[in-house]
Amino acid sequence: MTEQKHNDAFKVQPWQLKQRKGMSLDHKIKMSLVRIKAYHDKTDGKMYVAYSGGRDSTVLLHLVRAAFPNVVATFNDTGLEYPEVKSFALVTENLVVLKPKKNFLHCIRESGYPLISKENAQKIREIRTTNSDKLRNKRMYGDEKGNGKLAEKWKFMIDAPFKISDRCCATLKKNPVKAYEKLSGNSAIVGTMAEDSRLRHTTYLKNGCMQIGGKRNMLTPLSFWTHADILEYVARYNLPISKIYSMGYDHTGCVFCAFGCHLDAPGKNKFSLMKVTHPQLFKYCMENLGLAEMFDYMGVVV
CA–CA separation, 203 vs 70, rounded Å? Predict the structure, then answer.
């Protein structure tokens, strides 16, 4: 089977995703294991689990190692992890720690702060920095079908007195991963789910769980799982998880990242919680990194 035909075989329709999300956890585990074993065959066993120390990737690692106990895990030590998550992750067996060449402070000074969403931050950065009138017009007004433009409600951010960018993820996470994959020859298994975001939902419908060939190989065997499934799996197998979840956090992610904070109710975003649980980190974000000024400009209440 050619790579293209293989990839096409794992594409899904919206009704299929809905059907799969409604399956029992037992069925989902079996389907995910089928994907993992197929990926193992396709990569000749050269695969690794991208492990963040969070709940989703803890479940993923446990599931993959149920089939392949010796699979390696990688942990991106970006400097943006909650201390409870990092300390939990670093005791994992057969773990490779990846480090970026630059830190977050360097990233935001060079490119800008991650605000609103990755897609909108990219559009704002491009409008501000591109030398292409064609690209700038597309980001401002859209193509002939109106696609690709920055949402009207965020156009005021073009004139913000601070930089905005989507590039920190590439610098701190993607680049070390690329270097590791090139050096090791291993292919990634990632614990993302379609319900995490609109982008991940669209990507799963387009590519399915498995991507072979192209820029890189990648497997997302939990794509059709839900967050309720993750909790059920943790309870069923009595999995240890980071104590960050007992402190009120539902998601971990990068400590300083502000993507999506405008969607939360006033005083209810992750920085509001951080003010209570990690006051020194909160102070560093607001004062040293300048997030207080940025939130004030956006109208986000912490």
Answer: 29
The phi and psi torsions of 263 (rounded to 5 degrees) equal -80, -20
* 273 lies in the same domain as 159: no
On whether the CB atoms of residues 220 and 204 are closer than 8 A, the answer is yes
pLDDT score, position 6:
45
Domain boundary among 246, 272, 287: 246
% of the chain at pLDDT higher than 70: 97
Same domain, 264 and 296: yes
Number of independent structural domains in the chain = 3
pLDDT in tens, 90-133: 999 999 999 999 999 999 999 999 999 999 999 999 999 999 99
Residue 278's domain spans which residues? Answer: 260-302
- Taking residue 216's Cβ as centre, other Cβ atoms within 10 Å add up to 13
Question: What would you measure as the largest C-alpha separation in the chain, in angstroms?
Answer: 56
14 plus 72 within the same structural domain: yes
Give pTM, 2 decimals: 0.89
20 has pLDDT over 50: yes
* pLDDT for the residue 9: 55
Indicate the SS3 state at residue 68. Answer: coil
| Contacts made by residues 136-143, CB under 8 angstroms, sequence distance 24+ | none
In a shared domain, residues 90 and 232: yes
User: 213 vs 3, 25, 71, 72, 219, CA distance in Å?
Assistant: 6, 30, 21, 21, 12
